[in-house]
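Give me structure tokens for this 561-residue protein.
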Amino acid sequence: MSEFLPPARVRAILRLAQPSARLFLPGLAAGVASALSAVALLATSAWLITRAAEQPPILYLSMAIVGVRAFALGRSAFRYLDRLTSHDAAFRQLAALRVGVFERILPLAPAGLANTRRGDLLTRLVRDVDDLQDFPLRVVQPLATAGVLTVVSVLGVWLLSPLAALGLALCLVLAGVLGTAASGSVAAGSERELAPLRGDLADRVLELVENIDVLTAFGVLDSRLEGLVGADDRLRRATLRRSVGVGIQGAVLSLFAGAATVVALLAGFGGLSGGSLPGPDFAVIVLVPMAVFEIFAVVPAALGAWRQVRSSAQRVADAVPTTVPREIPIENDADSGQDAVASAISAQPALLLSGVGASWPGATEPGVSGVTLRLGPGERVHLAGPSGAGKTTLAQVLVRFLDYTGSYTLDGVEANTLAPSAVRRAVGLCEQQPWLFDDSIRQNLLFARETASDDDLLAVLDRVGLGDWTAQRGGLDARVGERGALVSGGQAQRIALARALLADFPVLVVDEPTANVDEAQGDRLVRDILATAAEDGRAVLLISHTPVPDELITARVTLPA
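Here you go.
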């Protein structure tokens, strides 16, 4: 029973995938009408052919002739309307589902996703979300259509032969139960495993593509390729097992479709020989089960699709929890945050930490604790400490990616009373590994200030020491490569600094700018960062485990190991 009753957080995701009644019901009605037209077409055709063999006056056949034409046209027309309206509803809801998933995951990013594999997360947010469109299309609507068709068909046959109707109903029930059980015994595990296996394969492919140079240099490329082949083989075998289950299911349905026909024959012979069942009616009760089973075949398939949809919904729910971890600050209303920061925080705010601590989501120990420092307008503070002391954790706190204990104020206003986005308009972060988009230099700068002109961009690049480099590369249209593959670590840091200058943060947190450059370049980079930032009187918190000359800074703070 638990297989068909998902937990509440999975049901919440499924509700996002199900279109509203206003969008869903027209497609369902068209689907039911198409299915009923298909059965009515076969029944009317069987009656017409058999009755025509008796050579009655044409007047007795005219309604059946019109019915055959009407049901034939109706089956195609309603089928088209079904596909048009149901898929339109599912695709519209899929867009809303994507937005809903991203809205739920945004509060977690980036700190709450630090331990999530990128390839698997990508699969959850793309392929698994795509699979959720099967919920209305391949689960809810087919089951509802088959249910209505089964009831109407059995009642219709009952009017002609109660015994044949009972046989049809029994065969439908047995086909549904045994077909589902037989298919599930072979394919249920595979249907649940498909989504996780796809995520594992995507993660391995992404790791291989992104780190092929490192893997090659250390001689482990072949072992990673073997792991990739193994993941692909597991996915292939799961897909094959699902296909075998579909085949078994089809065999069971064919068996009971034949059994329903045999039961109808046996039930009809008595009435036919006794004269209580006319020949045309006999043809109807014998042939109708074929049409009914053709449409009823979607039931076991829908239950198989349900297992796969449920697995995808579970993975999406795991990536998008219903509650935000307590370590992640919740975004307040943006407008109130803007008003608060505009009225309470000056253009050059003073930042004060007193006994600040923070933890990462799921961690058993705090990432940093007991930090006290002051960063006033125009001041340059060097925050040092050994690896693991919590320097990056503190940087995440300052831009409100992580919540904190203790006191953290901007111009005397406690940061946790402001919207995190409002704090980030005052405090900017140059991260340890700046993210560069696979685009031009221009586009990597413009998102910091969309209204900036090319002259503005060239001016800020010149300020951070990249003016000549940009010109040598061919100007602002030069591409930086995927994740900045075509630029060095120091150049990436300078581009990140240029973005921060364009955004005009009054307080700038620079996290380990020398982590990916050699010592000589690191010294020049630190000097340029501090000198450039000081030109506009902004405050700078330089987080670095490497020494910084006294003349470049106004204060030092060292975190204990």
